Amino acid sequence: MSRPTRMVEVRTKILKQNDIVARELREQFQESGVCAVSLVSSPGSGKTAFLEQTLRLLRGQYRVVAVVGDLATDNDAIRLARAGVPIKQITTGTTCHLEAEMVRDALADWNLRELDFVFIENVGNLVCPAAYDLGEQLRAVLFSVTEGEDKPLKYPTIFNTSDIAIVTKIDLAAAVEFNQAQAFASVRAVRPGMEIIQVSAKTGQGMDDWVAILESHRHQTNDASEMLTVDASGLT
Amino acid sequence: MIKAVHVRLGPLSGVVEKSLSAAYELARDGTEFAGCELVVEETPIILHCATCETDCPAESIQEISCSLCGSQDVSVVGGRELEVTALEIEA
Lengths: 236, 91
Prior knowledge:
The structure holds two protein chains of two kinds.
Chain A: E1 5-13, H1 16-32, E2 35-40, H2 47-58, E3 64-70, H3 75-81, E4 87-91, H4 100-107, E5 117-121, E6 138-144, H5 151-154, H6 156-160, E7 164-168, H7 180-190, E8 195-198, H8 207-235
Parallel strand pairs in A: 2-5, 2-6, 3-4, 3-5, 6-7, 7-8
Chain B: E1 2-9, H1 17-28, E2 37-42, E3 46-49, E4 54-57, E5 74-78, E6 82-90
Parallel strand pairs in B: 1-2
Antiparallel strand pairs in B: 1-6, 3-4, 3-5
């Protein structure tokens, strides 16, 4: 005969440890007045080319660094270094996503107060990165015109956890008969009202829109940082 | 003796029940917790609609809009759960 059991309530998030580190990172970014942006997409959507162009566009005016995650090789770091900004490669081994702790360790050598933007390029994967908060203030999900307009419907969770959708390789739109209305409708079915921009890292189309969005987020970060400073000084 | 671990799992957590259960069994078997079951409660996506000011379940993960009035002015208030809620202990 089985013995009676009793229930002990626990209520602990399984990814609590990641969430704690992510929260600390977010606070650090905020206090330092640095805008942290992560990029997620499936492999081959053009994250690295897009990031390389982004870094080139920002580096004249802002202090920018990037960390890039891959299972193996430092090919992406070498590629991104061509943009002339400090880059750090995170090799995850067999892990299919970045975790907050990996990002924290990769950033350890940099003084965040001396930076304006930190970019975090996640491992190419539209599944697991959705579950891991990295402390970023802006999460951009990329998908290219060659991937099919229903990509957001197939991977709703990552779209739902992201702040902006970026359609890449827009220079190929005509060749692959990309249906923009259908793609936008798919995005907004899983994430109502989501901001969407269309870019080509190759031709530069739409990159101005992206830079404007980044600058506006940076201002928000700085405003929040200044408010924190005022709060702190008010206490003394 | 822990007889069971109770977990709540939402569709927006990024984790599916089958994978979690399979991984749990792999981690558990051969340890002192071999007799401890994983009980997964799958939770629905709950949206708060700003238009009709009610909470209602989403039609599906592909349709994040109010199932009552159709509004897309909604926020996700449930469905991201990935948490241990209780331990079932033999008295």
